[in-house]
Design goal:
Length: about 150
C-alpha cells in the first residue's frame, strides 16, 4: 500500500495524535516532544501567546506548574481524550489535519463532569527519516468542562 494513500495517511495521523494524547494523560512531556518538530509553533488553549519551539513549550509547562491555582476555577481531572471527525489532506509535502477533541474527566469526588470539547488543527510534515511530526498545532476550546446535571 502507498504510505501516502489517504487511508494510510489518516491512520498514521490518528496513531500519532492518539499516542500524543496517551503521553499527555501519562504525564510524559518527553514522549510528547518526540512527536513534535523542533521548530513547532502552538496556539495552546490555555495561553494567548504563540508558543515557538520546544524551548517555548518547556517554558509554558514551567509557567503552568509555578502558577498558583485559580480558586474560582472548577477543579477536575482529565481521564480520557478522544479524537472525533478527523480529517486529513495534503498540500504538497505538508499534511493538514483537523479534528474535534473530547476531554472527559471527574471532579475531586470522582463524579464525571461534562466533557470539554475543542476543535483542533495541526500542520504536519515528515522529518528526513520519514517520521511524521507536528509542525504547528492550534487548539480552540469550544465548550469547557463542567458538572453533569
Amino acid at each position: 500500500m502507498d504510505p501516502m494513500s489517504s487511508s494510510a495517511l489518516l491512520a498514521d495521523v490518528h496513531r500519532l495524535l492518539s499516542s500524543m494524547y496517551e503521553d499527555y494523560l501519562r504525564g510524559d512531556p518527553a514522549a510528547i516532544d518526540a512527536r513534535l518538530a523542533e521548530d513547532v509553533t502552538i496556539f495552546d488553549s490555555a495561553s494567548d501567546a504563540l508558543v515557538s519551539g520546544l524551548d517555548g513549550l518547556a517554558a509554558l509547562r514551567r509557567s503552568r506548574a509555578s502558577r498558583p491555582a485559580d480558586p474560582t476555577a472548577p477543579v477536575w481531572t482529565e481521564t480520557a481524550l478522544s479524537i472525533a471527525d478527523l480529517g486529513v489532506r495534503t498540500i504538497g509535502d505538508v499534511v493538514v489535519a483537523t479534528w474535534w477533541l473530547r476531554v472527559d474527566g471527574t471532579d475531586p469526588l470522582g463524579t464525571p463532569v461534562s466533557p470539554e470539547l475543542s476543535r483542533n488543527t495541526a500542520v504536519l510534515r515528515r522529518d528526513p527519516g520519514g517520521t511524521l511530526r507536528i509542525a504547528h498545532l492550534h487548539e480552540d476550546v469550544r465548550r469547557e468542562a463542567g458538572l453533569l446535571r
